[in-house]
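Quarterly update, task 2.4: 2'-monophosphoadenosine-5'-diphosphate-bound model.
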Amino acid sequence: MTDINGKTRVYGLIGSPIEHTMSPLIHNTLAGTLGHNLIYVPFPVSGDGIGAAVRGAFELHISGMNVTVPHKNTIIPFLERTDPRAARIGAVNTLVRGKSGYVGYNTDVEGLYRALRSENIRIEGEDILLFGAGGAARAAAFLCAEKGAASLYILNRSAEKAGILAAEVNRFMKRDFAVGMALADSHKLPHSRFLAFQSTSVGLYPDAGRAVIENPDFYTRIHTGYDIVYRPPDTRFMHLVQNAGGRAYNGLKMLCYQAVIAFELWNDITVPEEEISRIYQNVREACDRYES
Ligand code: ATR
């Protein structure tokens, strides 16, 4: 723990609810081991308070913030500017102090990319199946577009939302690359083997034990499944992928990397990979304690 003094920089997370956040553990551990005079604290802020919270934080010289549910999108009008990638996704999860306000970034996209790289999962040339069309899905969809996936099928409960996201991705790519579909139409998918991202809230604690598609046969089409959910650490989606012979991962590394990238932005450093592995172990243990 940092010795707090007159030069200690204050960072935090704004969102609601945030009682169970892992972010203070990650940032305060990084600050301690890398020798940065900063602390990171949770700031519970609910819906209507976001504008006042951002202005107040700037006046209080809060050095940077993470942003989570329900503010990732609604915070954008209160920022000095938004990085183009965050603007494209319509979601900001990291604030960096600018001259007259905060600049908004999205480290979820790069966090997912670095998590995939650390597991030797490639996007380039892959046929991708994306479950969900909400905030988390948007980050995965644009990453697949940026990193050269061969195709992208977005499956969502609401086909309309899947179609809207597919159209946005296609506009960005300037070609027909993404297809939006209803989950119920999964039998219409082409006969490829997919890299799949599970980015719905189905299976997320306390809704554990459920998956968007329950039919075990469907999962023979997935060679690798990445669940953005990490609570519980072994999701039903992961089990279904593994039982059908595929590799499966949870979103815990993505969580660690999105935090590390925010820490790098705030401190203008590169966090060594050994340090990230240590953080990952700490977070895993904290999650296990939380589960038991
Ligand atoms: P996040 O920012 O975490 O992605 P979100 O934007 O609320 O959260 O998106 C939640 C996603 O989970 C959506 O894709 C949602 O599907 P709809 O767009 O049809 O609402 C999906 N989802 C939530 N509950 C679901 C359920 N019971 N079955 C299938 N999909 C579900």
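Highlight for this quarter: The pocket of 2'-monophosphoadenosine-5'-diphosphate is lined by residues 132-137, 156-158, 161, 199-202, 212 (CB under 6 Å).
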